[in-house]
Abhydrolase domain containing 18 (Dovyalis caffra), 360 residues
Amino acid sequence: MVTVNIGMLHYVIDHIYGAFMHRSKISPPFFSRGWGGSKLELLERMIKDLFPEVEGQNLPPRLIQPIWRTVWETKTACLREGVFRTTCDEQLISALPPESHTARVAFLSPKYVQPQKMACVVHLAGTGDHTYDRRLRLGGPLLKENIATMVLESPFYGRRRPMLQRGSKLLCVSDLLLLGRATIDETRSLLHWLECEAGFGKMGVCGLSMGGVHAAMIGSLHPTPVATLPFLSPHSAVVAFCEGILRYGTAWEALREDLAVQKTAMTLEEVRERMRNVLSLTDVTRFPIPKNPNAVIFVAATDDGYIPKHSVLELQKAWPGSEVRWVTGGHVSSFLLHNDEFRRAIVDGLNRLEWKEPPL
């Protein structure tokens, strides 16, 4: 009788998938155009500006007024799509590709329920998630719990993808930081709209993999308590691109050549160290503790080939009061098989928030 180590099997599946996606010639590697030159320097400065000098003094979200159209509606639910100009400041807008200047969002909500008696969760994209569909499927069953779902189309993804970019393979390292900073700004504005314009009683933000990193950053920076739900997420992009499977899909030689053009000759190991330094800006443990850490629930996989366990535990340690839940599986299998666990975390995180008092 042959016994199979199921955990190892999940881990191997992650590596097989990673080899197919990132080591084959099907698509180009990440960052094939190099570091991004002056854009990278701009982004490094602007991400440092996210951190408040004094705790609690981070910049307020910018106001938005999305233009909505109805996609479909039934007797009990309605799906709308909204568009608005990205809420990045002008320096960032000039660095964004023109295709990313307009933000798009899908909004699935129950009908005939007062907003102050509903919650809404903004779902952020993981690497390669170019459409609304997967996240709407995750949020759809929550309608019966009076939880609405808002799905943001990421900059550099879907209809916001630059013309020269193939799939999810960002052309420059600066694009990764730009994608993150724009996602943070836009989502904070959406949460502000949900609270102040739409009048929702509770809000949350969730995301899978890269989207979970962004969700953690937003939960940290938002001025009011929100349920914060990172799924299968590292504490930093360093883990994904320098330790996990994505390191095999990174154009290290192109990055070295780009530095050589700038008169800096480096070994590949030195290039990787520079990448670590740049991506350390995405280390969520450096961000402030969220306003209600009890409403932070991480869902992590026991045998994740992309995200090592230590990375998840570092975030929990940095945010006392937060919770980690483990699902059995790897990155790919958990993404496919554990949607019920993700939904349970969403419900539980929202239940740990107080209902907002309705205006008099």
Q: What stands out?
A: Residues 173-197 form the longest helix (25 residues). Residues 14-24, 53-57 have pLDDT under 50 and may be disordered. The two ends are 70 Å apart (CA to CA).
